[in-house]
Design goal:
The complex is a heterodimer.
Chain A: H1 2-19, H2 25-38, H3 40-56, H4 61-73, H5 75-81, H6 86-93, H7 102-116, H8 135-143, H9 147-164, E1 171-172
Helix pairs in contact in A: 1-2, 2-3, 2-4, 3-4, 4-7
Chain B: H1 2-11, H2 24-43, H3 46-62, E1 63-64, H4 70-84, H5 86-111, H6 115-128
Helix pairs in contact in B: 2-4, 4-5, 4-6, 5-6
Classes of the chains: A mainly alpha, B mainly alpha.
Chain lengths: 179, 146
């Protein structure tokens, strides 16, 4: 019964969010994947709140990594139910691409890869007024104008990472800013 | 004795950069960069693809990396571009890299010091021509065979 499933998810939810910041990484992925697939509206908004608060703090990087891994586990229900937040999430991940914390960098790439698998990186903002759309679709289309920023910054971050991952520096053939 | 020692020293380095051992996280990141970059380019609109491709062109034109880590990652990114728009990407990569290889080979004859650039350009060329499309016959590689 649907009500039983909702009741079960609501009952397990506090425990799941307790597991979020624990050391049990595999269990965390599995729990959030199952719960978010069963009842995305019960899990994903709270998870996004924790993710956004983790993005804003610089002193607790382990919280950010844990949230990234959990969002990665819920990538499909996240994109299906909250497409308007996907672009913001991608933009939030960009500062995490940093050679100084290679573990966080790997988690960020995995989440980006999961999200990019399911969306089109196309600026639809110009086409938003041509047909009747609901509020979520209108917001999503408007936010797609940020894709250009995302693509440009992501490319630059990748290039910076390539340069910094070099075993030894060879040479540059002159300086060209990528902008 | 001195002869053997100096000869050995000249023919190879004691520690080769290719023997560098990377840990699991570094290996994961190296693989993830190429994968994510390819997905981004694949899902991009033509305008955004052009934006990224122009940045990639500028980057490849203005940099030389060692072939072990950075060169390898960059080669994967170039291969991604070729796999998505082969005609356009090969139109840039093949003339550019062949020219670079030719120039490095010329320098090598004279000064014997262009190995890193030659290795980098050859790595990139070897990655970008590994494609299943029939565009390669349009390019002339014969002058590289000397």
């Amino acid at each position: 019964m649907d009500s039983d499933i909702t009741e079960f998810v609501e009952a397990v939810k506090p425990v799941a969010f307790q597991v979020l910041f624990s050391a049990y990484e595999d269990e965390r992925r599995m729990v959030f994947n199952i719960l978010a697939t069963l009842r995305p509206k019960a899990i994903i908004p709270d998870l996004l709140k924790k993710f956004n608060s983790a993005v804003e703090t610089l002193t607790e990087p382990h919280r950010f990594t844990a949230c990234v891994a959990a969002v990665s586990a819920c990538a499909r229900p996240f994109v299906e139910n909250y497409p308007e937040h996907v672009i913001d999430t991608l933009l939030h991940l960009l500062p995490g691409i940093d050679v100084n914390d290679i573990g966080k960098c790997a988690d960020n790439f995995i989440l980006m890869s999961d999200l990019l698998e399911m969306i089109w990186v196309v600026d639809f903002s110009r086409y938003s007024s041509q047909s009747s759309l609901n509020e979520t679709e209108t917001v999503t289309l408007a936010k797609s104008s940020h894709f250009e920023t995302f693509v440009a910054e992501f490319t630059e971050k990748c290039f910076a990472l390539v340069e910094n991952r070099s075993v030894y520096h060879v040479k540059s053939l002159g300086y060209f800013p990528y902008k | 004795m001195t002869y053997f020692f100096s000869r050995r020293h000249q023919t190879r380095h004691e520690t080769d950069v290719m023997d560098e051992v990377l840990n699991d996280e570094e290996l994961a990141v190296d693989a993830a960069i190429g994968d994510t970059f390819q997905k981004m380019m694949l899902k991009s609109s033509p305008e955004l693809f052009t934006l990224v491709f122009n940045k990639l062109k500028t980057f490849v034109e203005t940099r030389v990396f060692e072939a072990a880590v950075s060169g390898n990652i960059l080669a994967g990114m170039c291969k991604s571009a070729v796999s998505i728009q082969p005609e356009r990407a090969l139109d840039f990569f093949i003339p550019h890299l062949c020219g670079r290889i030719e120039s490095a080979l010329r320098d090598r004859v004279g000064h014997q010091k262009a190995d890193i650039e030659l290795q980098f350009s050859t790595l990139l060329l070897s990655e970008v021509i590994v494609c299943k499309f029939n565009f390669l016959h349009e390019f002339d590689f014969e002058y590289l065979l000397f």
